[in-house]
Automatic annotation (TrEMBL), chain A:
Sorted UniProt keywords: Signal
Signal peptide range: 1-28
Record lineage: Bacteria, Pseudomonadati, Bacteroidota, Cytophagia, Cytophagales
Protein name in the entry: Outer membrane beta-barrel porin/alpha-amylase
Superkingdom of origin organism: Bacteria
UniProtKB/TrEMBL annotation, chain B:
One matching Pfam family: PAP2
Domain Phosphatidic acid phosphatase type 2/haloperoxidase as annotated: residue spans: 406-503
Source species, domain of life: Bacteria
Keyword vocabulary terms for this entry: Signal
Gene Ontology molecular functions: peroxidase activity
Signal peptide positions (record): 1-21
Keyword field contains Signal: yes
Protein name in UniProt: PAP2 superfamily protein
Keyword Signal: yes
Length: 308, 520
């Protein structure tokens, strides 16, 4: 029934979509913000995320499940953001994820999830207004089980993300950022050679997982050591089916969610901390999760100025 | 070395962007490759199948089929003309349907039944009072849907389907060779057929017989699917006309025969005690019995709220290949006493898997899970049986016989296993230790013996007899299905080993029938 409902939610929400579901955008700079590392500087961040739900949407029916109780997904994710130029950054990340429930008999799952690479390019920057093209790709790093939902830690898809982001930052430090993305997801292979999707029985171990898209808006303040923002994000699948009555979720489900949240960062020097909280306010085929994350950041120069 | 900004940007354009474009295109492919079944060209006519022993019909001639019009008659010639016109007007969609049904009538209806089983395999949700409403056959599409096509239900539905197909085809074969009407394209060589034609007499149409008999059974088993089934029935019959394989009177005679046989088979279904298989009132005395014979901690539902156990009196349903007294006689020895060294040994194995389940163990558990939303273990084995028949180019009647032997032995296995489960009322390992959690979903009925193991042992016994060259393969499959329940942490090893061995014994009864039904 519920599965990585939550996890997926976050994913859909465009937060490191391809990466760990529950991973949040708790970093100095993220694939969904307008912040860049300077040339030859890098930022290493490690975050911990705790996300839980005790209600979920079975198709559109909001329900609890006493055989799940509270479903919790936790993760630890190291992430490295590298400033290649002041307008071009690369980000890599890979989370370790573990799931559990407070009731029922479903085996908890854990493992390394999907490694992701993001490239961010600021192609317009004028009077506080900037436009960014962002591309991402992710690939599973371990052979975790993708269809034991809601306990699975991920879906085993390879993904590719195309995102456009626009931002305006006033001299006062107030900024407004909006983005939209489309995420291509590969077919996956499961351990079974028969499954149901779209009201049909498939006699194969290949599963066609729908693509997803997302949109987000964030309003915040960024000046010197402090950043604070509130955000709203929407994510959904481009097609897909619904969880059947009283049945488990499946990777083909059309998961949708609208999430609101707040984010803050404090980085007086090289070392900083950040925190994030979010809550799903509406959804379909996923859990109504509330997530918290905290992270530490360490910024450093990875190369000296060029000698020649 | 200093990275040149310009050249770096070029390299992005040259390498990264195309690479991502390729990746996106590749991600775009959403087509999944399902195995396709080619057109069946039977290697034998099985001319003597009219003398094979039916299951329910008194004999292959029990239902009368009128003699067809002579090939020289004006009526038949008019039918041929009509058929010729139909083949010349075939649409691309009809051609697709011809090829679909050309894989085999029994093959396709078995596949349809498995799909229905999967679609109806959903346990009812609990209501606000913490009760589980019982599906109502008169309101099949309400929540909860009727039926809940769990393994015992599906075992029975597939058994009746295969028996109806088999008895109907034995009857059809009797009349085919009695009346010997040649295929339309042999009477009129100007008819261009879209499927291969053999020397099998065409009256009554074997496709119409199978389609109608299947439809009668499946409408009763899945009453919410009547419109879907009638559409399939019409499409199947039309495909034989479009393909130039049968004239209208072949189809009509086959339809009448199929319907009549289907009705006879469903008459047995009405008296096989399935209607009493969910008698929850009997569980109290079953639990008392289990305590009396030494089960100190009888099974209790591990669901919240507690769910009544699945079909506690299914063990009293009438079996196919032996009688109800034999069900009791086949009951295996008692499981280990709870707390005994034998019990502890197998519990410890599960505690170890709970800590260290390997990816391969998880794969095997999942591959054989056949749980909620699936066609269940009987469906899994029917798929295997149907594929073997297709690979071996079996005729319709021999395919039906194989699946009837398989289907009846699996319902027998279900009946025997359910008898054992509720006789001993033995607790699941998950009830005895909360450290044991499942990677496949926990069935809501007692543990001893394993249903998967019993079904699989019986299925392998029958398939190994019919396809001796596949004996090792099917035995290995059954063993893997059996052990998968240990890897999935819902059964003790003794549940699985005793269940598998019982299954093989149960399968032996169907093999005994196979040796004497006239087909070997």
């Amino acid at each position: 029934m519920i599965s990585s409902l939550h996890q997926k939610g976050l994913r859909l929400l465009g937060i490191l979509l391809t990466i760990a579901g529950p991973i949040s955008s708790a970093y100095a700079q993220m694939p969904n913000d307008a912040i860049y590392m300077g040339k030859k500087t890098a930022c290493l961040a490690v975050s911990y995320t705790h996300s839980a739900w005790d209600q979920y949407w079975e198709n559109t029916l909001k329900r609890e499940n006493l055989n799940i109780g509270t479903h919790t997904t936790q993760s630890v994710m190291p992430m490295l953001a590298v400033g290649i130029t002041k307008d071009f950054n690369a980000i890599v990340a890979v989370p370790y994820v573990w799931t559990k429930t407070s009731a029922g008999n479903l085996k908890w799952q854990k493992g390394m999830q999907d490694a992701s690479l993001w490239l961010k390019y600021r192609f317009l920057n004028k009077s506080g207004f900037s436009l960014h093209a962002i591309g991402g790709a992710s690939i599973p790093t371990s052979n975790y089980i993708p269809d034991f939902l809601p306990m699975s830690i991920g879906l085993q898809c390879k993904t590719a993300t195309a995102r456009l982001l626009a931002s305006y930052r006033h001299q006062s430090g107030i900024y407004l950022t909006a983005s939209g993305s489309y995420i291509f997801r590969s077919k996956i292979t499961i351990d079974r050679d028969s499954y149901q999707a779209d009201g049909k029985l498939y006699n194969t171990n290949q599963v066609s997982v729908p693509n997803t898209y997302d949109a987000s808006a964030r309003l915040g303040y960024l000046k010197k050591a402090i950043q604070a923002e509130g955000f709203i994000e929407y994510g959904a699948c481009d097609g897909g089916d619904n969880i059947r009555r009283n049945d488990m979720p499946f990777p083909t489900n059309n998961m949708k969610a609208t999430m609101v949240g707040v984010y803050a960062k404090f980085q007086p020097k090289n070392i900083g901390v950040n925190a994030r909280a979010s809550h799903v306010i509406s959804g379909q085929n996923m859990g109504q999760s509330t997530a918290f994350s905290v992270g530490v950041l360490y910024q450093f120069r990875y190369a000296k100025e060029a000698k020649n | 070395m200093k990275i040149n900004y310009i050249s770096f940007r070029q390299s992005i354009t040259r390498l990264v962007v195309p690479a991502m474009a390729v990746m996106m295109l590749w991600s775009c492919s959403k087509t999944v490759d399902e195995p396709t079944a080619g057109i069946n060209t039977p290697s034998s006519l099985d001319e003597k199948a009219g003398t094979w022993k039916p299951y329910v019909l008194a004999s292959s001639g029990a239902i009368a089929v009128a003699e067809p019009k002579e090939a020289t008659s004006a009526d038949y010639k008019a039918e041929l003309q009509k058929l010729k016109a139909a083949t010349e007007a075939v649409t691309p969609q009809q051609r697709e349907q011809i090829n679909y049904w050309g894989a085999g009538a029994v093959y396709r209806w078995n596949e349809i039944a498995r799909e229905l089983a999967a679609r109806y395999n959903s346990p009812p949700a609990s209501n606000a009072d913490g009760k589980y409403p019982v599906p109502d056959a008169s309101k099949p599409l309400d929540d909860p849907k009727f039926p809940f096509a769990n393994p015992p239900y599906t075992a029975r539905a597939l058994a009746y389907l295969s028996v109806a197909q088999y008895d109907a085809l034995v009857a059809a074969w009797n009349y085919k060779f009695k009346y010997n009407r040649k295929a339309p394209s042999k009477n009129d060589t100007s008819i261009k057929t879209l499927l291969p034609v053999s020397d099998l007499p065409s009256y009554p149409s074997e496709d119409a017989v199978v389609a109608e008999a299947s439809c009668v059974v499946l409408k009763a088993m899945f009453p919410g699917e009547v419109p879907f089934l009638e559409a399939k029935l019409a499409e199947h019959k039309q495909s034989r006309i479009s393909a130039g394989m049968n004239v209208e009177s072949d189809i009509t005679a086959g339809s009448e025969l199929g319907k009549a046989v289907g009705a006879k088979i469903m008459a047995r279904a009405k008296t096989d005690k399935m209607s009493g298989a969910n008698n929850q009132a009997q569980t109290a005395s079953m639990i008392a019995n289990a305590r009396k014979i030494g089960v100190t901690e009888p099974w209790v539902s591990q669901e919240f709220p507690p769910r009544p156990p699945m079909l506690p009196t299914y063990g009293f349903v009438t079996p196919w290949n032996f009688d109800s007294a034999t069900v009791v006689a086949l009951r295996p020895e008692a499981p280990p006493i709870i707390g005994s060294p034998a019990y502890q040994k197998d519990l410890n194995e599960l505690l170890d898997i709970a800590k260290n389940q390997t990816r391969e163990q998880a794969r095997i558990a999942s591959f054989w899970s056949d749980g909620v939303g699936s066609y269940t273990p009987p469906g899994h084995w029917h798929r295997k049986g149907a594929e073997l028949c297709h690979e071996n180019k079996y005729s319709e009647v021999r395919t039906a016989r194989t699946l009837a032997l398989l289907g009846t032995t699996m319902q027998d296995a279900g009946i025997c296993c359910w008898d054992v489960k509720y006789w001993y009322y033995y607790p699941r390992p998950n009830q005895m230790s909360s450290k044991i959690k499942t990677s496949v979903g926990l069935p809501n009925f007692p543990s001893y013996t394993s249903g998967h193991s019993t079904f699989s042992g019986a299925a392998a016994e029958v398939l190994a007899h019919i396809f001796p060259d596949k004996k090792k393969e099917v035995d290995d499959m059954a063993s893997e299905a059996s052990v998968s329940r240990i890897y999935g942490m819902i059964h003790y090893r003794f549940d699985c080993e005793v269940g598998l061995s019982s299954g093989h014994k149960i399968g032996g009864y169907a093999v005994q029938r196979a040796k004497t039904d006239g087909a070997e």
